[in-house]
Amino acid sequence: MHFPHGARHSGASRVTLLTEGTYPHSHGGVSVWCDQLVTGMPDIAFDVIAVTGTGREPVVWDVPAHVGRIFSVPMWGPTPSGQHPRGHHRQRLAESYEQFVTALLDPRAEDGFGPALYALAGAAEEGRLSSFLRGDRAIGILTALWNRSGLAVREARPTLQDAVTATALLEHALRPLAGPYPEVGVAHAVSGGVAALPGLAALQRHGVPLLLTEHGVYLRERYLGYRTAPYRWPVKALVLGFFRLLAEETYRRAALITPGNHYNRLWEEHGGAAPDSIRTVYNGVDPAAFPPAGPEPSDPVLSWAGRVDPIKDLETLIRAFALVRARVPTARLRLFGGTPRGGEAYRDRCEALAAELGHAAAVTFEGRVEDIRDAYAAGNIVMLSSISEGFPFTLIEAMSCGRATVSTDVGGVREAVGDTGLVVPPRDPAAMADAALELLADAERRRSMGERARLRVIEQFTLRQTIDTFRSIYQELSESGGRRALSAVEEHAPTTVGRSPLRSAAG
């Protein structure tokens, strides 16, 4: 789907943002970061290729005029149009797909992942891949490979239903390969995973340098998500194998990787990224837009802000609050933030837990708030209970507002907080409750922490620093990254299926 918007700035640098489930179709921390980047550089022409759910998601951000085109690539929308491959096209595609799946199943064949991926990209661009993956030939290839001797997955006795399920999941995950691909400028993937697929294809076909910014660790979050997914082990092993090899391919091929914290850097180096290709760039906020929040509420309140999602682990926060309330009966927990479509069951579970613990009246789900500063001002302490984070905006915004914080030790949280807040292990309600009680009992300590937290933001995490850094990176990659990327294309050029990729949908 194509949403034309605004006019192109002639002669300006061109950047294509590659997003998944975020900007400009959703709210949240990564979307805020994208909006800050775009609005902070009005002299740069931006496009957006957004991987979405159904393709019917509205644009919810006020997109500035220098964003030229927004392309929605739905992963779970209507079946993509296209033609079923026949003859030599079908045979070559079957061979490439067999190489691709073999790489996912056999550690000895992982070097074939990249060449096979780019071959599949050619078929996807021609409209043949999705149709092929919905056919019997693709399922037959997987079932045959699963039963090869020497493969660990064979011991789990995968079934035909497993093959159907796994093939369908791969078909959806590979839909972003159908394009469009950026052909000039810089492709900036704002997460790993499927959002990077058009960028990898653009690098391979046109030499467009790929910039990767990971806020959370995409691969780690897929591992966490699939722990409770309703699939048998053979399906999980295949799909997680895809995400792992995709992460490694992205880390190897990106011209530059800009994690939001040093924690992500460790994952990226472990995944094959060259250390000299990684540059940490912290998220930033405008301290003037997040001034000191003013007086605390008269009654003890723990405040939380974010999207209602399992990765935010509100269940641990609610359990911790129950322990706090056993000591401070007047305490309240106020939860600010929307519930993404499909997350209603998780919110219901959290509300049921609060009721089960006997604190339903003291735990309030406030929904999205018009001014996020009100969420921080609402609490004596701002809480963060996530099991995975990058460099969370809610934390540095709360710090800029001068509020004391209690946060889980995940991602870049400790880097953000320093000694200006309390950090506790994730999934530990008792530790979280103890930290909250410690601060609730000491108003002077909360005040001092809040003052030092705001000073830390002003010194290290301002929005101006972030925007200036990325402006320099865009210029650097535009001037020299293209030549390095073209050299990489020539060095790694695989055998591909079909012709060169489509031009953008607008031209």
From TrEMBL:
InterPro entries for this protein: DUF3492 (IPR022622), PelF-like (IPR047691)
Disordered: region residues: 485-507
Domain of life: Bacteria
Keyword match ATP-binding: no
UniProt KW keywords: Plasmid
Domain (DUF3492): residue spans on this chain: 14-276
NCBIfam families: PelF (NF038011)
Protein name as it appears in the record: D-inositol 3-phosphate glycosyltransferase
Gene name for this UniProt entry: pelF
